[in-house]
Predict the structure.
Amino acid sequence: MKRQQERAEYRSIIADSWNRCIGYGLHHDYEPEPANLDDRARETLEKDYEALLSTTETEVLPYYNNIMSNSRCLILLADSHAQVLKGWGDKRITESHLRPWFSAGASWHERYAGTNAIGTSIATRSPVQVQRNEHFLKLNRSIISSAAPIFDTDRTWWGFSVPSVMPTYRRRIRWGWFVFFRNRLKTV
C-alpha cells in the first residue's frame, strides 16, 4: 500500500510539472538555447558561490572520484535559481547538442528547460528524480537525473546537487549515489 502511495505521489509531481510547463507556453518540441556566460559573468557566478563550490570540491568530490572514474557519471551543482554553477565528471554522457546545458550559467528552470530534476526540485522544494520520458521537452529525454535542495547551517537555501548518470545503472543505485552526495555536502 505504501509503495502504491509513493508511486502516485511521484506521478503527481511529474504531472504537475508538465502542467506548469504547458502554463509557461512550452511544447514538447521546443528547443531552448542554454545561456552562454562570458568570462566576467562566469567569474561573478563563481565568486558568489565560492564557499559552496569550494566545499563541494574539497569535501564531497574526493568520495566520488572512484565512482566517476569507473562510470559514465556527471555531477552538476546549481544555484537556487536553477543556474548551473559547475559540473564534474564525464561530459560525454549525452549527445553533443546537450553539452552546453551542463556548463556554468545554463538555466534548468522549468520555464526554460521543461520538466527536469533541477527545475522540478525547485518547484517542489524536495528531492526529485526524472526518468527519460518524464522530461517535458523531447530534447532532454536521453538523460536521467536526480536533484535535491541543499541548505546551509542556517537552513538558507544554498543550491542543488544533481548527480546524473547513464540509464544503465538501476534507479536505486543512482538514487543511492545522489543521497550520499547530498548528505556528504550537508555534513561539512
User: Anything to note?
Assistant: Strands lie at 73-78, 84-89, 128-130, 145-151, 157-165. Residues 165-170 have pLDDT under 50 and may be disordered. The longest strand covers residues 157-165. The chain has one domain: 2-30+37-187.
